[in-house]
Amino acid sequence: MNTDHDLIHDLAQMADGTDHMATLRTRLAVAADRDGILDVAYRIVDSPVGPLLVAATDQGLVRVAYASEDHDVVLQQLADKVSPRILRAPTRLDTVARELDEYFAGIRRTFDIVLDWRLSAGFRSTVLHHLPEIGYGHTASYAAVAQLAGNPKAVRAVGTACATNPLPVVVPCHRVVRSDGAMGGYLGGVEAKRLLLDLEAAA
Question: Is 162 in the active site?
């Protein structure tokens, strides 16, 4: 069993110049999970579109964030909107990391990850729930998605829903394009959107 003496010993070693931070983080995450005080676990996943922050609750994957969104800001938002009991706990997200790796390798076309939708609500949530209906390697216009969501006039609202998608890549807002075929904007940047669409088109 880990004791306060063990922690003091590790901290003393750190003071002596030995880097035990990773070990301490792991021990803290395991203890917090065991004691039921870890509400949000997160890790960073390397990808062709840059480092992605992924975070999960006991209800499922709650957030995927690009570096351009500022991971520190995203973590603070999670603390404010979900729970301040948030900790880096990579093993809790092994399945998420594996499925993302498979997707970027071109061998996964759909995600089997359980999702926690609490960060989206109302019409935005309705839009996001319909996005997986756009098949891998295909695109749909903002107008078509508005039709799918049951409000054909809400084209601008569809754009807002995509721009505020808390689960990009997994919930494929990158497959939504303009009616003239132009890509349109993307919360991860136009280059990331182009890479995702090219990846799917080539598979």
Answer: no
